[in-house]
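Explain this protein:
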Amino acid sequence: MALLENLNPREETQVHRLMQQRARQRCDALIKDFIVCSRDKTISLAWSCKPEKKAMLDCMHLYTNPEDLDEARNIFLLERREKRNAWLEKQNEGGQQG
């Protein structure tokens, strides 16, 4: 369930990056397998690491769908709200001391 708040284009880009970061974390082992396979290869990479590449891409696609984008958006909005609330509390504390 997405929180009903508008995001500007810069924030939407941050949400997409967050979703991709979370997908990379979930697919870390498969990404590492592909990296290990691709070491010391040039032209032969195209066919010798095909299974590892497919597994890595399949995993990334699994975790970069509209539902994961909504989840990343919710995480982003909650973090933004927490930062805003912390900033407001700090401002209120500063005004009460003076």
